[in-house]
Design a protein that fits this description.
alpha/beta, two-stranded antiparallel ribbon, 11 strands, about 35% helix, disordered N terminus
Length: about 300
């Protein structure tokens, strides 16, 4: 995966700086509930632009006096003992039907002590278990990556419902969370937990070598998410098509990497969607961006 790498020391420094700025601004900004749905979070997976952002952005936004919840997949590479993960029995036990097959949803939780951030993990033996992330041991994309993304998206949304927590903003980071905007605006649009939420998608310079499966569009069908609303998307659903799907159903887009695909940047401009361009000052910029998605009260 080609990612713009950020040095931990440098990024931690600007995160601390913007934490200070947030404390200065917090009295002026309306407190919000932010749901972060991340593909990767450091230290549970190796450091890269996506995983560092997955840790530092929720941490900094929380330090700005906003309430957060954070989710990621329980990738097979995660050491549960070292990370002190444990199952949340009251949240586990639901079965999600993907491609006509029942898949048990398991919820685990752990805390990043240094960041004071609690992380919920979406787990399932079929889709995660002892498997790696998007590529197998031979470096090949998993054939069911599309189904895994669907399971992750629905797993997060069902768990948030069980928590009886109503987010103001849902911030999705990484291709694994790219199905979430579609479901929030269609299948879950009438759910009290999500009816008024604004959805933000962060784009990174990620790469998948294969498409998401010949039956990906069929697997996406759920409640009001029908073939009719998916008809304008290519049957050969590759990463670019997945990102366009996320863009179409998001209220705002963040460019979190200087190397994001030019085709996607042009697509955002064409769709005239609120857009936050690439900046190293991402924490402060995101907080302001969240606020901008809400109309100013007279």
């Amino acid at each position: 995966m080609r990612l713009f790498l950020l040095k931990k020391e440098y990024y931690g420094g600007i995160a601390s700086f913007f934490s200070y700025l947030c404390k200065v601004k917090s009295s002026k900004m309306a407190k919000k509930k932010i749901l972060f749905i991340n593909q990767e979070i450091s230290p549970y997976v190796p450091d890269n632009a996506l995983s560092i952002m997955g840790r530092e952005l929720p941490k900094t936004i929380q330090e700005c006096s906003h309430e957060i919840r954070t989710f990621m997949p329980k990738w097979g590479i995660i050491n549960e003992r070292r990370g002190q993960l444990h199952e949340v029995i009251r949240l586990s036990g639901m079965n999600l039907i993907i491609n006509d097959t029942d898949h048990p949803l398991i919820i685990k939780v752990a805390s990043i002590q240094s960041a004071k951030v609690q992380v919920y993990f979406i787990d399932n033996d079929d889709y995660f278990g002892k498997r790696l992330m998007e590529k197998d041991e031979q470096g090949e994309d998993y054939a069911d990556n599309g189904e895994r993304a669907i399971f992750f998206a629905r797993g997060v949304l069902e768990t948030v419902k069980k928590l009886r927590w109503v987010p103001d903003v849902i911030h999705c980071q990484g291709w694994m969370s790219a199905v979430v905007p579609l479901y929030v605006k269609t299948a879950y649009q009438d759910e009290p937990s999500f009816a008024d939420a604004k959805v933000v998608t962060s784009l990174f310079s990620q790469k998948l070598d294969k498409n998401l499966g010949d039956d990906f569009k069929q697997c996406l069908e759920f409640r009001e998410t029908t073939q009719e609303i998916l008809k304008d998307y290519k049957d050969n659903f590759d990463l670019n098509e997945l990102c366009k799907l996320a863009i179409d159903y998001s209220d705002g887009i963040v460019q979190s990497d200087s190397l994001v695909n030019d085709e996607l940047l042009a697509y955002i401009k064409e769709k005239n969607i609120p857009f936050l361009g690439y900046s190293e000052n991402v924490a402060e910029a995101c907080e302001d961006f969240y606020e901008s998605l809400y109309p100013v009260e007279e």
